[in-house]
Design goal:
2 copies of one chain form a homodimer. Chain A is of the alpha+beta class and 433 residues long. The first copy, chain A, has 2 domains: 200 residues, Oxidoreductase, molybdopterin-binding domain (Sulfite Oxidase, Chain A, domain 2, Alpha-Beta Complex); 126 residues, Immunoglobulin-like, CATH 2.60.40.650. Helices cover 12% and strands 27% of the residues of chain A. Chain A contains 9 helices and 23 strands. In chain A, the strands form 6 sheets. The first copy, chain A, has a 5-stranded mixed sheet. In chain A, strands 5, 6, 9, 10 and 11 form a 5-stranded antiparallel sheet that branches. In chain A, strand 9 and strand 10 form a beta hairpin. Chain A is globular and about 70 Å long. Chains A and B meet through helix 2, helix 3, helix 4, strand 1 and strand 2 of A and helix 2, helix 4, strand 1, strand 2 and strand 3 of B.
Chain lengths: 433, 433
C-alpha cells in the first residue's frame, strides 16, 4: 500500500539520507545536463519574464465547475469509424490510458459505451422498480433509493471487447484504441443485498434481469449469487453524481464483470428462476468457439495487463543512451486482486518481476512499474503478464487462440507486446510461435 | 478497508441471507410505501413513456471530455463577497462537501485558493529550479521533471482558515462555507527526497523555500525534515494533469500541512540554513494568541471532523417519524490516520461511536456514518469528534478558545454542532459552556 510507509522508508533518517545522496545521476534520471547559474539567469521562466507571472490570473469565480488547462486539449476520449458500427450512438469512446495516472480515471475521460446514445434522464421523473420473486415489490424514487445505507468502493469497468479487435493481429497502433475500453473509479451506491434484506428475496430466485430506461432498453441477466455477493446500484462516481454517459442518475455495478452487464439508466430489476436470454446476451456478448458452439453465461473480465508507457503514443525517440526510464503499466482482474506482474524485454521468452505501485485493491486497476536503463539502438519487445489471487495468469496468444479460435470477440486477455524500434518508436505487434 | 471483505461479509451464504431477509422495513429505510401493481402500471418511468426512453441519445462523440448532467447545475464551488478580500482573485472557492461521496473530490469541485488569481502556465515554457544548499543545482523542464519515478497517494488539502470565521460564533449557516475550504484527491508526482538523492542535499540545509511563478509569487518556507519525509512535487490529480487553479502544471504537496504551503505554479525550491520569513508566513498564516504573541512555524492541519448529512444544505424536513436515516460525515487529520469518530446528539455531553466507511488512509479524508432512527419533533444537537493515531482528539470550543483566544484565524479544529430543529431544519450553532 503506497499510503503506508514501508519499513525501509521508516528507517531512513537524515543521516542515512545524506549517505545515499548522489547515488543516482541527474543526467540519467532527468535526462538533462546541469545548467550553470548563467543559464539560470537567462531563463525567462526563472527570471520572471513569463506572461503568466506578470498579470492577474482569473478570478476564482471564473469556473465554479472547473475544466482542464487548454494545453491539455489532446487528452480526450476517442472514437474511430472502425469502432462506430454505423453511427456514433451504438458506439464507444475510449479512455486515453497512456495519459492515466494512479488508479482513478477522471469522469470526463471515463470510457463510454452505449447501445442507443447517451440518455438525459430527469432525476425527478426517475423510478426504479424491483419486482418478480421478492416478497415486497417496490417502485423507488431517486431520493428513496439514496436513503439506503451507502458504500464506496474502487473498481474498474471494462468492456469485454477490450482488445477484441486483436485476435488476428494488431488493428490499432495505439494503446488507447487497443486497450482503452476500460477505466477505473470510486463508486458510491448501495449493495443490492442490502435492498433485498429489506424487500425479501424468495428462495427460488436464481436470476436477476437488469433493464435500462434509455431507448435501447439494454437488458442483461445476472446470477443471484453475484447479486448477493458484491453487486451494487450506484449513483456516485469519483465523489459526484454519475455522468450522463455513465447512466445518470443510476447504473448497475457488477464489480469485475463485463461492462455491458453494468446496465445504465437502470429502471428495473426482476428476479426469476430462469435466465432471460435477451438479445444482448445471445446474439452479442457470447464467444463463438472453433467448434461452432458459443460460450454463454461467462461474465468476469479475466486477469489482464498492458504497458502504457512506453506505447505507440509515448515513444522513446527522445531518450538518450544510458537514460534511466520508468516503464509503467496497468494490471487488473475481475476475479480478484493482482498479486504480481512480470515484464519481458524479448516478447515473452524471459520475464523479470515488476513492482506494484500504490493501492492494490480487488477488482481494481493496479499500477506497476519497472526502472530500466535505456540502451540506444536496442530493439525491445515489451510484454507484460499479470497474476491474480484467484490463481490465474495471463495466457500467451497461442494458448488463448488454441482454445478460443479467432472468432470470439470477447474476453481476450492474452499478453500484448509493444516493439520498441532501434530509433525508439513504439509499435503494436503480435508475437506468435 | 471497504474493498476487503470483512469476515462477517464472507460468512453470509445464501441460506444465511434468506434467514436475514425482511429484517429491515421498507417504509423505515427507503421512506416509502409499497406500490401496488396498478401504481406500477401507471408510472410513466416504468411504462416507458419518458422522453428519454423514446428517442436516440447523444452520440459518444458529443462530449469527448465529459461534463456533468445539466440537472446537477447547483453542485459547484462557491464564493461570497464575505470571503473575497476585496476581489475574487486573492480569494477562495469552496467545495460542496455536503454533496461529496467517498474520499475523492472531482477536480471540477476541488476547492481553490489563490493570492493573485488562477495563472495559465504554458507547459512548454515551464521551468523548475532547485538550488541553494544542494551539490548539483538544476533547472528542469516539465518533461525532465516527469522522468523521475512517480508515486501516487490519496491526501486531502485544507486551507488552515477552514472554519476560521467561526471563532466568535457561526458566520455561515452552511457546511459548504463553514467547512468546505478543503477537498481530497489522488495525487501523482515525485517525492522530493527522490530528487534530492539525485542532486545531493548538503548536510547544513535546514529549510526549503517554495516559490510560485504566478503574479503573487507565493513563498513559504518548509523544514527539511518534512521535505525528506513525504513532501511531493505533483503534476497529476485524480488521474489527469493538475487543473489550472491547482497549479498546472506543477504544485508542491506537503501531505496534511496547510494548503497555502502547497505552493502552486511552482517555479523554485531553494535550500538554506534559516527560514525566509516571507510575507505569507509572517503577516499571514500565523496565529495571534491572547498574550499578543503569534504562533509561527506550526504547519499541520490537526484532527478534525464534520457532519455533512444532515446539514443546513441537507435538512430533514421531509423525513417521516420512525424513518431510519444515515448520518454521514468526514474526518481528517494532517498528523496521521483517523482511528475513530464519536457522534453526539446533545451537543457534546454524551457520545456514541460512529462507523468508519471505506478506505481509511493517512492524511486523507475518512468517511464515517451512523444509522439513526428519526423521531419527528425531537430537537437534536449533532456534534462529531474525531481521533487520530498521533494521539489527538478534537477539542471543545471552550478548550480551544481558552488557549488560543478568538483572534487566531487559523488551525481551528474544535468540534462543530448542527442543530436539527423540531421541524427538521438544520442550523449551524455554537455550544459554549
Amino acid at each position: 500500500m503506497d499510503n503506508k510507509k514501508s519499513k525501509e522508508e521508516q528507517s531512513i533518517d537524515r543521516r542515512d539520507f545524506f549517505r545515499k545522496t548522489a547515488a543516482m545521476s541527474v543526467t540519467a534520471l532527468a535526462g538533462t545536463s546541469l545548467l550553470s547559474s548563467n543559464a539560470m539567469a537567462d531563463d525567462p521562466a526563472i527570471m520572471n519574464h513569463t506572461a503568466w507571472g506578470q498579470k492577474w490570473g482569473d478570478p476564482v469565480t471564473a469556473n465554479l465547475y472547473g475544466v482542464p488547462s487548454a494545453y491539455e486539449h489532446n487528452v480526450t476520449r476517442r472514437n474511430t469509424k472502425l469502432l462506430a458500427s454505423g453511427n456514433f450512438r451504438a458506439s464507444i469512446a475510449v479512455t486515453p490510458i497512456h495519459e492515466s495516472q494512479g488508479i482513478i480515471t477522471p469522469n470526463g475521460l471515463f470510457f463510454s459505451r452505449s447501445h442507443g446514445g447517451t440518455a438525459h434522464v430527469d432525476p425527478n421523473e426517475y423510478r426504479l422498480m424491483i419486482h418478480g420473486l421478492v416478497e415486497k415489490p417496490i417502485v423507488l424514487t431517486l431520493a428513496q433509493l439514496k436513503r439506503y445505507p451507502s458504500v464506496t468502493r474502487t473498481h474498474f469497468i471494462e468492456c469485454p471487447a477490450n482488445g477484441g479487435q486483436e485476435w488476428r493481429g494488431p488493428q490499432f497502433n495505439s494503446v488507447q484504441f487497443a486497450k482503452g475500453f476500460m477505466a477505473s473509479a470510486e463508486w458510491t451506491g448501495v449493495y443490492i443485498k442490502t435492498i433485498l434484506e429489506d424487500l425479501g428475496l424468495k428462495p427460488e430466485a436464481q436470476w436477476m434481469l437488469a433493464e435500462g430506461s434509455d431507448n435501447s432498453k439494454m437488458g442483461r441477466t445476472v446470477p443471484v449469487d453475484k447479486v448477493l455477493d458484491d453487486a451494487m446500484i450506484v449513483w456516485g462516481q469519483n465523489g459526484e453524481a454519475l455522468r450522463p454517459e455513465q447512466g445518470y442518475p443510476v447504473r448497475l455495478l457488477l464489480p469485475g464483470w463485463e461492462g455491458n452487464l453494468c446496465v445504465k439508466w437502470l429502471r428495473r430489476l426482476e428476479f426469476a428462476t430462469e435466465p432471460w436470454y435477451c438479445k444482448e446476451e445471445t446474439s452479442k456478448y457470447t464467444d463463438l468457439k472453433p467448434t461452432g458452439k458459443a460460450i454463454q453465461h461467462f461474465y468476469a473480465n479475466e486477469v489482464n495487463s498492458t504497458v502504457v508507457s512506453p506505447s505507440p503514443e509515448i515513444p522513446w525517440t527522445d531518450l538518450e543512451d544510458g537514460a534511466v526510464v520508468e516503464i509503467e503499466g496497468l494490471a487488473w482482474s475481475g476475479m480478484g486482486t493482482i498479486t504480481g506482474v512480470d515484464l519481458s524485454f524479448d516478447g515473452g521468452k524471459n520475464y523479470v518481476e515488476a513492482k506494484l505501485k500504490g493501492l492494490v485493491l480487488p477488482k481494481s486497476w493496479t499500477r506497476w512499474s519497472f526502472m530500466h536503463t535505456y540502451k540506444k539502438g536496442d530493439r525491445l519487445l515489451l510484454t507484460s503478464r499479470a497474476m491474480d489471487d484467484a490463481g490465474y495468469i495471463q495466457p500467451t496468444i497461442d494458448e488463448e487462440v488454441s482454445i478460443m479460435g479467432v472468432e470470439a470477440v470477447y474476453h481476450r486477455n492474452a499478453v500484448e507486446t509493444w516493439e520498441v524500434t532501434k530509433t525508439g518508436e513504439v509499435n503494436h505487434v503480435q508475437i506468435r510461435s
